[in-house]
Design goal:
With 214 residues, the protein is α/β, with parallel strands linked by helices. The chain is built from 5 helices and 11 strands.
Amino acid sequence: MSDYYKIKLIKKEKVAKDIFKFVFEPSEKFSFLPGNYVLMFNNKNSNTAGISRPFTIASTPKGENIKFLIKKVGVFTTELEKLEIGESLDIEAPLGSLSYKPEHYGKNIIFIAGGTGITPYLSMKKYSDKEKHNTNFKIFYSVKEKDEMITEDVDKVVVSNEGKRIDESFLKENISEEELTNSFIFVCGPPPMEKAIEEILIDLGAKNIIIEGN
């Protein structure tokens, strides 16, 4: 069940083109699953008062602080980038159905990400490694331009060519029939990408497709 919390900004850093890492200290620790997101409110600015935006937590449930990787696009994130160290925001958390659960521990996971959709993977992979779940992760990560790529905590990445989508031919080449039927396949990115990838995976015979909201 979600609740409301205050979070205080303790670190802000640019990590890629228009993408910033924000580290917050929560007023009180709350439980969440890797892959969960929060609704963030920024009532300090008249341009964003009363508006909320969803952002996935990039850190693990074991940490004291919570981390986000957020692309500056639109009014809300532009104002968020102006937030000063020590200032606080309100969030509703935890939220979301795209999460790493006990049923996934020790299994095969394929993660297909577009842009900042890589964020849930970072939390899942780091948490799995720390807890020694022996989960086998395979990640496909696509960005429009090379300088938009987030490299922090990303390893063993297979990337489609910059500016090109992960399409049917790419997936056929990189995912075996056995993997399609024996893996949990997470898809996270812009909604049009998620829909297109889901349709391709279904046609290819994938059995366990996990997309936020499904």
